[in-house]
Amino acid sequence: MSQSRVVMVKTRGAFSTDGMLDAKRVQAMLQRGIGLLGEHGRWQDTLGAYFRSRDIIGLKINTIGGKAISTRPELAESFARLLTAGGFPADNIVIWDRTNRELREAGYSLRMNRAGLKVYGTNSRGVGYGSRLVAHRNVGSLFSAIQERIVTASVSLAILKDHGMAGVTAGMKNYFGAIHNPNKYHDNHCDPFVAEVFETPLIRDKHRLSIIDALRVQYHRGPAYHARWAEPAQTLIFSTDPVAADFTGWRLIEQLRAGAGLPTLEEEARYPDYILTAARMGLGRARSKDIRLIVEEI
Amino acid sequence: MKRRRFLKLTAGAGAAAGSGLCALCLDLEALQDPSNLSRVEARFYDKLPDREIECRLCPRLCKLGDKERGYCGVRENIGGTYYTLVYGKACIVQTDPIEKKPFFHYLPSSSTLSLATAGCNVNCKFCQNWEISQVRPEQIRHFDFPPAAAVQAARSQDCPVIAYTYSEPIVFFEYMYDTSVAARAAGLRNVVITGGHTKPEPLQELLKVVDAVKVDLKAFTQDFYTQYVRGELQPVLDAIKVIAQSGVWLEIVYLVIPSLNDRPEDFGNMSRWLLQSVGPEVPIHFSRFYPAYLMQNLPPTPVSTLENAYRIAREEGLRYVYVGNVPGHKGESTYCPRCETRVIHREGFTVRDIRIRDGCCASCRQVIPGIWD
Q: Which CATH number fits the domain that encloses residue A284?
């Protein structure tokens, strides 16, 4: 069996001295990362392999951390522009999360009923959660209508953070924002719930790509923002394997923790078992030897 | 003239209710933006470093970072202070007969003003009210209904009792507590319908201001609580003992689910424990399960299973045993343990006849425990 490909694109100087993110630099990181994920190195070809021309593409972001530690608007909007440049109409792209309030607080401008790119939350008027209770293994949830009936293809455009209960939050756990009751699935370090939510057909069948925002990583005391333990790692992680992407993010968090002299997540009894559970369920790979990690610096 | 309408139950609560509901008229204008949650500081939590908190309301002891919510979904850490989001934010307000709770030894045939908010601290796979208990408050329609409004509504509807019910009242502790205090001051009484999954400190505080508690004892094994409730049994047993010792009236319900908690030894073990821990006079209701929520694949409980539970509990020495959710069954009625006279005749939620005088059997003068007036 071939390895899962994970691309890690790093840069320097992505943030200006006042903390602003250089959108052009982010765009370049995206183009490089997407390109390296594919066989031929051209981001246009790679995107063409992941999405159909008529897809409604959902970019599921994570905005619970407010402006300080959410998926950066520059990243989400840059990726939307890349899709548009790749031939996918802006009308068919939705940047979304749970609530409009969280989107606004994270710096997004809402756009729902206008032509072009859409940005809105599940709690928007006329959206909400589906009425069909989805029961899957240990999970019973209503799904955001955006995930359930609006989008046909999904990208987890997640923020990478340490998480007090889960250990790590990244691409798979980002989909907790697609269900109505994530509070019910944080027991036992979210294991096996993150994997089981991801495995539901509404997620798994639509998921195309994980892009993990590690531009600034909360590597300790997450998921809330604490400047003391937030590292501008200036990194993006890309993979079509959701487990390998999360595994790579987890490794990065451990590196940052080690660099700061902090104990490992295992030593803090916050080992993110759900990532290994997801691998055992066949959702992807979670061993270094099964992952081909391509690290690129631009 | 104001537009008025009947506020209807959600589908889940309706299923629990059966039929014959008397809904309360409410002003449409009172309905609020669903995102309009309360921000009242919660009780029973500790502030930790780095804006974290630890909740001490229930055995989960949720430890939460900034902007995180507890398992219940209705309490949130905002900047290192823990808030209840549902204070005065009722999602159900209606009148019910007290028999529906069920309370069989507490003010028979009384009307209760029943209140609920969103949220619960367990996740029972068989929950009949999951549309309110397993959602966040912003996901369902709710309205401003502060304690004073609840008291006023109870009085205007001739309800001598306010019942905190349908979801898990412990998670709206502050709202329930303040409403109970206001209700008592107005001469009303308070009853609580709970899973009992709580810490002793809030429970003891609550017992100072309420008059009766019904505990849903969902099984008598930790394995069941782990698999089907996602909670712990021991705190529930501890809560039952605390309530019994407090003098607040206590009744127990055991929902009998085919193949999951219906073994004769389950009934026997539980009955012996009740006998030893709270005595023979605490009423126990064996209720019939109907498919709900994540448990649609099991049939309704056979009546014979409920009758078996009834028989075992009686043989173990419990004196007031009932069969629930089987309208018209003789096990719905109360019988004098000495002369076996039917002292309260019930059919469904309707009380047909009461033959209790001054708290005693009208035939033989045996004391029948309960709060009768």
A: 3.40.50
